[in-house]
Amino acid sequence: MARMPPTCLRTNSRGGLLTAEMIPTIAEDIDVDVSEDLVIIFDTMFTLERNTRDERPYQRAENYQSSSRSTPVTDVGHDNRASGGGFQAPPVRVVGSPSGSWTAEFRSSLPQSESHPPPERKGRELLNRGTSSGKPSPRLTEKQKKKLYFIDALKERYRVDYDKVQPIPYIKDRLYCVDKVYVEGGFEFMATEQVTRGSRSWERLESYASVFNDQRIQSVRRIIEGEPGYGKTTLTLQLAYDWCNGVGESPMRDVEVLILLRMRQLSGIRSIYRAIEVYLLGSDTRVKEADIAAIIRESKSAVVILDGYDEYPDQHSRRVTDIQRILKLDLFENTPVILTTRYLPDYFAPITKRVRLTGFDEIARDEYIRKAVVGEDKIALSILKARLKENPVLEDLCQVPLVFVMFAHIAHENQDFQNFKSVTEFFGYMIGCFHEHLKNKSKELNTVRYSNDENEHAALDKLAFLAISQENQQITWSRKGMYEQLGQGFYETYLALGIFVEEDVVSDISSREVEVRFYHKLFCEWYAAHHIVYILSQPGQIVSLDEMFRHINPKDLQYVYRFACGLSRDVGSSIIQYLVRSQASYRFRMLCLLEQSGDVESILGNVHNVCSQIVAIKGGDNRLLQRSTVQLLDIAAGHGIPISSLHLDRCFSIFDVTNTCIVLKSGHRLTNLKTLEVLRVTGHIRDTVGGSKGVVVTRDELLGLLQTCETLKEIRFEGREFLLPRSIPAELIPPTLKTRNILVSYECERGMTHQLNWDDGQWQNTTGGPSLWVLQEDLDQQWALEELAKLSTDGIPVSCLHLDRCFSKFSVTNKCIHLTSGLRVTNLKTVKVLRVEGFKGTGNIPSRIEVPVEELLGLLQTCEMLEEIRFEGLEYLLPLSVPTELIPSTLKTRNIKVSYVRDKNHGVVHQLNWDDGQWQHQITADGETEVWIFQEGLDQQWGLRELAVLSAAGVSISGLDLIRSFNSITDDAQSIILTSGCTIPILRTLQTLNITYVDVDYAVFLRILAYINECTEITELEFFHCNAPDKVNPEMIPLSLKQRGVEVTWCDKSFTEHELNLETGHWKLIR
Questions:
Q1: Quick check: 128 and 122 in contact, CB under 8 A?
Q2: DSSP letters of 853-919?
């Protein structure tokens, strides 16, 4: 027997010490081998201890006399409560290194076996094994045992995935562990105060660890966006690797439970716990859905990663799924959830933080080449980098990690690697490499021969086109269906090529099927583009492009368009003309134009068509798109083609006077703008979270820019980001500029425009009665307030003062508006319209700002020329009415329009009636609306008022969620009583009622059924995370509910969903 390490263990509830001399006896008692098996048991206990250690202080044994008194003490197991049918776990304390160094020392002294199962698996087996001596074994509680099984099963499942990363599809014998090939690309997060689809400001993150650790994006909901091939799935595999292997510097280091699900596999599965059981645990049925829910709920730290929302089959399902609940923060409220996707979901919780992948820069590309391709071979590295430089199209395209990875491996292995003019050429070359590799492999002895004609794939082209051209894209097929549509031989060839990938899918608890998908969606788009070219090339056939592309959204499927344009010049011209007609598709025209092969002369017609419209370069565009647009402008100017209008949106950096060119923030340069007619330069509302960052345009830069653009008629700067010279001395203005009389305007605030006067070089306010928008809390706000004071002093009417998310209160004493920045608006006499706008419904709701009666009336009296005031936003709480005796007669005479819109989604505008001081209600909802009641007090009263207004007007209310706010229901079942004491009357147009986190007894349950019976449009009643009656007397269920087929569902506290059979009164298990 190997010598035991000099250590002590505390064991059993009597507080005795386990010493080295005792171990042989204990080993015999629990029927394990003293050498390796006992160490594995302790290893397993150490693992469990790290995951489940409580805060209970260690109490030293009274008889502890060891010389190792100063040695740290580690707890191993801590729960000695018996669990019925489970095993007893005595408290075990190890005196020694908590990292398990004594077990490592012990194991190193043992005879080495040729093969050992993984310690976690063998530990589970040993802990679960009975004893031969009949003596009690030291066992874990049933709950701890299931948790151990669960965590081990997750790690085994993830290892299968992260150990088989395949950079090149056709080389299946070259698989990598993700950690050997993962390279961090760029990360950015949305830094604006609200998560909107409008104005955006993105800031760089240091690394993928910052997604979790950066305080600016701390949230339990994060969305990671990325274009096709940007490495979203690879990132999730790296996180799984970090968790399974306890990588010290990883954000997964302290995570106890990691759930990683591929959303493409979740078709028809409403329960997240069912999905975990089916796809992550497989056939191991020892851990059930309820166990999984408990483990996640009770874990000290759990993270859920949902990969590929854009591939989620049920994203548009009308039935509520757990995925929808997670996005709305109705499930896993306190558990961090990360969603990866190409595009945003239709709805997500306001607290959600957005991160996007920006691809590979040069440093990341070099790192990948060294890690996965050439190692430390510097010569090979320099050759690959040179090949990339020789391909300017690929140099930009290779910021897409998927494309770069394939480029790096193919270019390294093919000495005849060529230069490419477009991504279409490169992708076609890459497909050819796939086929060539398979041909060479088939020549070897004893290998399978495949039918390998790379030009015959019409059936596959059609299949791919049908998959992406339907409203809900198809991303997987059954293997049997593929056999039938393509033929078994063809299918086996493309499986061998690596273009098809097979996956085992569990359809139910006992059945498995093989599903097939493309290695990546780019391949599906490649073959779909071939079918488009085939259809549009048929002579005499009239095809509606609007119908063909109806469901092919360029934002999701840009490469279909680009490949089709690159495959056929004639078809490409038709597609580009179609995109010119489509206003939403401008940014893709440049990319599609770049795909067309041939010399420049052959595409001048398309260049002319594109330049006759507005050409835009946006700060959010990737480098390839910006470069292609710059190339287009160079071609146009070089051939004398007029550029009617160029819009530089959040990308202008400086005008380089020395080199006479515009420098963009990306580094690209516009060197030839001789034929430009109109230039519009717009900036950020705010460049950074901490304040605005100005772009200074000096006098010399402005004059140099005007002189360089020889045919320029107008230039316009918009946004406080730009700081233009206050004036230009008349003697410095070249005579040619005065003669040309170029219109130079500067709109520092929306609605307030200044125009340069060429006679004296001064700026003139050309808006007459200007609108003034005070947007943010920064120093530029002070300048705007000074302008407002000047206008008010001169008696010039201000047509509209817009306070956008900056109103704090109105001071009756000082007769001024306080802004959230601390500044005050003191000159309000000439303001004609005042718009106070707040929360827009997509970000975090700030603290409520109550506007009392006296403040509202004081504000109206101070603004002597005021004709209208409008409050918009959930944070503003206006009085429910204004007592008529408090209304000054002057205000009644002026009849100022006072309106209040809490949330545009609610579809109600409230307008104050000066005759009685009450609010009148105007319905703006189109068809139906949805109202939630979250808050109490005044906010809840306004919400209830809007519900009543909508119902009385016959507007369908699609959903009412009572989140922890339901209290009871009146005895006559005519009103719901909320916890605040407010009541909700019968809402006849209500369609869905959801009561959450409140237990309901039998009597209240029956009254709720009676209440919804009066709601004549209701289709569903749902109880979520609560207790409900075990059964219902069917005679007590209103007949009308049965006839209308109203659906009554109940999701209990273990997240098991039931549906009430209205005929029998029994609950039927749904999942």
A1: no
A2: HHHHHHHHHH-TT--EEEEESTTEE--S---GGGS-HHHHHHT-EEEEES-GGGTEEEEE-TTTSPE
Q: What is the length of the chain?
A: 1071
Q: Give the whole-angstrom CA distance, residue 712 versus residue 207.
A: 44
d(CA 1046, CA 194): 38
- Between helix 604-611 and helix 623-638 the angle, nearest 10°, is 100
In angstroms, rounded to a whole number, what is the distance separating the alpha carbons of residues 83 and 140?
9
Residue 386 has which token pair?
Answer: 């040179």
Summarised one tens digit per residue, pLDDT across range 767-793 is: 654 445 554 444 356 656 777 787 788
SS in 3 state form for 723-771? ECCCECCHHHCCHHHHHHCCEEEEEEECCEEEEECCCCCEEEECCCCCE
| Spatial CB neighbours of 507, under 8 Å, sequence gap ≥ 6 | 513
Q: How far apart are CA 481 and CA 248, in angstroms?
A: 46
Supply the pTM of this predicted model: 0.54
Nearest Cα to Cα of residue 190 among 873, 774, 903, 843: 843
Question: Smallest Cα–Cα separation from 879: which of 939, 837, 833, 921?
Answer: 939
CA-based nearest residue to 885, from 912, 842, 917: 917
Give the separation between CA 125 and CA 36, rounded to whole angstroms: 14
Sorted by sequence, the CB contacts under 8 Å of residue 69 that are 6+ apart come out as none
Q: Which of 1014, 933, 1001 is nearest to 973 (CA)?
A: 1014
Both tokens assigned to 7: 């250590």
H-assigned helices in 414-520:
423-442, 458-468, 479-486, 488-497
Q: Give which of 902, 912, 859, 849 is closest to 882, Cα–Cα.
A: 912
Tokens encoding 68: 């190792």
C-alpha span between 500 and 460 (Å, rounded): 11
Q: Which helix (H) or strand (E) holds 302?
A: strand 302-307
Beta bridge partners of 601: none
Token pair for residue 695?
């772009």
253-264: average pLDDT: 93
Question: Which of the 8 DSSP states describes residue 64?
Answer: -
Q: Can you read off the two tokens belonging to residue 1018?
A: 């209701």
Angle at the Cα of 817 from the Cα atoms of 811 and 819, rounded to 5 degrees: 120
* Mean pLDDT, residues 887-891 taken together: 92
Residues 867, 184: Cα–Cα separation, whole Å: 56
Residues 215 and 323 sit within 8 Å (Cβ to Cβ): no
Two tokens, residue 76: 């191993």
Contact in structure between 593 and 576 (CB atoms under 8 Å): yes
pLDDT band at 78 (very low <50, low <70, confident <90, very high): very low
What is the per-residue pLDDT for 584? 54
Rounded Cα gap, residues 948 and 933, in angstroms? 13
CB of 655 closer than 8 Å to CB of 705: yes
Contact between 616 and 586 under an 8 Å Cβ cutoff? The reply is: yes
pLDDT at 445 over 90: no
| Rounded Cα–Cα distance for residues 673 and 617 (Å) | 14
Burial of 11 (0-12, 13-18, 19+ CB in 10 A): buried
Would you say residue 93 has pLDDT above 70? Answer: no
* pLDDT single digits (tens) 792-815: 887 878 888 888 778 889 999 999
In the chain the first and final C-alpha atoms are separated, in Å, by 53
Q: Is the dihedral of CA 15, 19, 23, 25 positive or negative?
A: negative
Average pLDDT (543-558) is: 86
Specify the amino acid at residue 505: V
Number of Cβ within 10 Å of residue 258's Cβ equals: 21
User: Exposure string (b/e) for 491-527, b if CB count within 10 Å is 16 or more?
Assistant: bbbbbbbbbbbeeebbeeeeeeeebbbbbbbbbbbbb
